[in-house]
Amino acid sequence: MNSYLKERRPLHTLKKAAESMSGRDFIGALKASYLRTGLPALIAEVKKASPSRGVLKENFDPVQIAQAYEKAGAACLSVLTDKKYFQGSFENLEAIRKAGVKCPLLCKEFIIDAWQIYYSRSKGADAILLIAAVLPDLDIKYMTKICKLLGLATLVEVHDEREMDRVLAIDGIELIGINNRNLETFKVDMSNTKRLLEGKRGEIIRQKDIIVVGESGMFTPDDIAYVQAAGVKAVLVGESIVKQDDPGKGIAGLFGQDISP
Ligand SMILES: O=C(O)c1ccccc1NCC(=O)[C@H](O)[C@H](O)COP(=O)(O)O
User: What sequence ranges are listed for the domain Indole-3-glycerol phosphate synthase (predicted)?
Assistant: First the structure.
């Protein structure tokens, strides 16, 4: 977390800015897209670089990429704001919002402190990411409540059975992301999504009407079909689409068809 920013924006002034922002319905946009296309709704990631792959796109223009994604049928966008590992920024998030992009925006940041939630909202976020691997249950509960009060959606990310069981035991969770990438080894294994949705866990998810997002390592229509068959209603995709000369065409290639509205 950037303590320099935290010093400049004490919580009581930041809260006012966050509360005055009007948000967009992130979960509603995912549901509407799934109904419209019959395919997992796309959360398209504005991603310049990653720890596992280095720089993905030279001449990175976040607004242009966001507009191309929206035009090509993305339901929502994920904007990396972490500087150190992904070369992202809050300026990118703010610029995309100010450019008039209508897709709801997920602020992709390593959130460990409630201050960051207010800051994300003040910069135009409609949803934030909470990573179960780094947050105790109590923080997930507390942060989810703050988000609800602010009108923000929370995407709670899990990677294994233990994290999934922890998150399923928390009341009020509406959106769970299953990351196919192991955050320590960076290895991607799509069968992770399938495994975590089998049996009792899948039943609880259906009962609670939770939307599951498949995350990472998707490149082809077969990959999309695989995670859809496993039970996901949305996918979070970065590398395979952002690397294309035309990221919009990257989306049609990923789904094997034009999904634009
Ligand atoms: O992308 C990485 O290399 C990475 C490494 C370590 C921790 C997290 C990482 N990525 C975060 C993500 O969740 C992905 O950016 C997102 O799921 C999109 O993945 P992809 O389609 O494989 O770019």
Answer: 6-251
